[in-house]
Design goal:
The chain is an alpha/beta fold. The chain has a single domain, classed as 2-enoyl-CoA Hydratase, Chain A, domain 1. It contains 10 helices and 9 strands. A 6-stranded mixed β-sheet has the order 1-2-3-5-7-9, with helices on both faces. Strands 4-6-8 form a 3-stranded parallel β-sheet. A hairpin with a 2-residue loop joins strand 1 and strand 2 (14-19). The longest helix is centred in the last third of the chain and has 34 residues, at 205-238. The two termini are 26 Å apart.
């Protein structure tokens, strides 16, 4: 196994990206997020049909942002810069020219759930819980994940999930069509993922790119309408004492 924190592989028409910090449950440092954005930018013009993002290990796809790193960002200006920076990275996924599949090998929580929601399609291991749990830290979503959830399930269901900060089981996510498929417990997730992706690789590149372009245009319009409101709400929550108290408690538990 390579020591790189991000493993990138092009296999024919497939781009595969693996988050490789299993000892930290694939926590999303800002440097790792920058690398993800750079990979998608560099492969924008390749003759790809599909891209897959997954995580190393079997515990977590991405268990959230790197709390220690983010704890140092205290001002409104720093919060805005961080939110804008990572949102731009996830936009590389949202508007990549081919479908991006999130293959959730384990839990996707907080910022990890925002990364998962930036993908066009998600599949999950049987234990791959999904949780936009930011409200547990007295926060709103920072990187566009709340808007992506609204896009996926509508205002009412999204508002209930975001305000409660509830963690969904893989089967609950499947019932809401947040996951397209869940791996049976007796099947290896890599085998399941490869089989799911193969159906996309068998399709015409023009079909895949055409449908992605249409879906991305709708998604972009919603983000253009809501991004400023969502970012201002996040910054207000970020600098509030209630958030810092909740963050300190979470770091203590770690």
């Amino acid at each position: 196994m390579t020591d790189a924190r991000l493993i990138t592989e092009v296999d024919g028409a497939l781009l595969r990206i693996t988050l490789n910090r299993p000892e930290k449950r694939n926590a999303l440092s800002l440097a790792l997020l920058d690398e993800i954005g750079d990979v998608f930018r560099r492969h924008h013009d390749h003759e790809l049909k599909c891209a897959v993002i997954t995580g190393a290990g079997d515990r977590a796809f991405a268990a959230g942002g790197d709390l220690k790193e983010l704890d140092a960002l205290r001002s409104r200006a720093e919060a805005r810069a961080m939110s804008t920076r990572v949102h731009a990275t996830l936009d590389e996924i949202r508007y990549f020219p081919v479908p991006v599949i999130g293959a959730l090998n384990g839990v996707a929580l907080g910022g990890g759930a925002e990364l998962a929601m930036a993908c066009d399609i998600r599949i999950g291991a049987a234990h791959a819980d999904l949780g936009l749990i930011q409200s547990q830290l007295a926060l709103t979503t920072a990187w566009g994940g709340g808007i992506d959830l609204i896009n996926a399930v509508g205002n009412s269901a999204a508002l209930a999930m975001l305000c409660s900060g509830r963690r969904l089981s893989a089967n609950e996510a499947l019932a809401l069509r947040l996951y397209e498929a869940v791996c049976p417990e007796d099947e290896a997730f890599n085998t399941f993922s490869d089989s799911f992706v193969a159906d996309y690789l068998n399709k015409s590149i023009h079909v895949l790119r055409g449908y992605k372009a249409t879906a991305a245009a709708r998604r972009r319009k919603l983000h253009e309408e809501l991004d400023d409101t969502a970012r201002d709400a996040f910054i207000t929550a970020w600098v509030d004492d209630e958030h810092w108290a909740a963050a300190a408690n979470a770091l203590k538990k770690k």
